Amino acid sequence: MSEPLPRTAAEPMAFTQTEFLRGALSAWLWFLLLDISVYGIIFFPMGAAVAAMFAVPWSAAAVAVFAFPAWLLGRALRRRARVAVHVAAFAALGVVVGVITTATYLVVATGRLEIDSFFGSPLWVVNVAASAFAMVLGWRRGARAVLRPRAPSIRRDADAAAEDALVDPACGERGRSAH
């Protein structure tokens, strides 16, 4: 049984619980792919394995903590049809998630937070960028049904073959015979 679609003319970007969960899971998987891949390249050959050890549990916790704020953001934007507004908002949320999660990790792991090396450390840059991109890609996956072009539905006429047989190819008019 599928959920009823909540979208209306007043709320064109409203979403179902299933769409939200699909987007959240997709954002998490995109983050893991991006984060682990980049660390794998930067710190080859062991970077990907080490990154996975930390990225999986920390990002899973981030999804658990930030799913509700993401849901609230989506609800707040449900009346906005412009995709650019959603992309910018979810990218900004991704930056916030990346900064808070990375800062929390650093405080837990080292006992201190070194703000002065914010842009110099690959840890900050990679995690925050991956989080921002993943959040947008997750939103896009969740909003896939909303973003699908509205093609006019084609009605299939069960009598089409019989009606076409009545057309006289000689005169091109329906129901008239040229004889």
UniProtKB/TrEMBL annotation:
<dbReference type="GO" id="GO:0016301">
    <property type="term" value="F:kinase activity"/>
</dbReference>
<feature type="transmembrane region" description="Helical">
    <location>
        <begin position="119"/>
        <end position="139"/>
    </location>
</feature>
<feature type="transmembrane region" description="Helical">
    <location>
        <begin position="83"/>
        <end position="107"/>
    </location>
</feature>
<keyword id="KW-0418">Kinase</keyword>
<feature type="transmembrane region" description="Helical">
    <location>
        <begin position="20"/>
        <end position="42"/>
    </location>
</feature>
<keyword id="KW-0808">Transferase</keyword>
<feature type="transmembrane region" description="Helical">
    <location>
        <begin position="48"/>
        <end position="71"/>
    </location>
</feature>
<keyword id="KW-0472">Membrane</keyword>
<protein>
    <submittedName>
        <fullName>Signal transduction histidine kinase</fullName>
    </submittedName>
</protein>
<keyword id="KW-1133">Transmembrane helix</keyword>
<keyword id="KW-0812">Transmembrane</keyword>
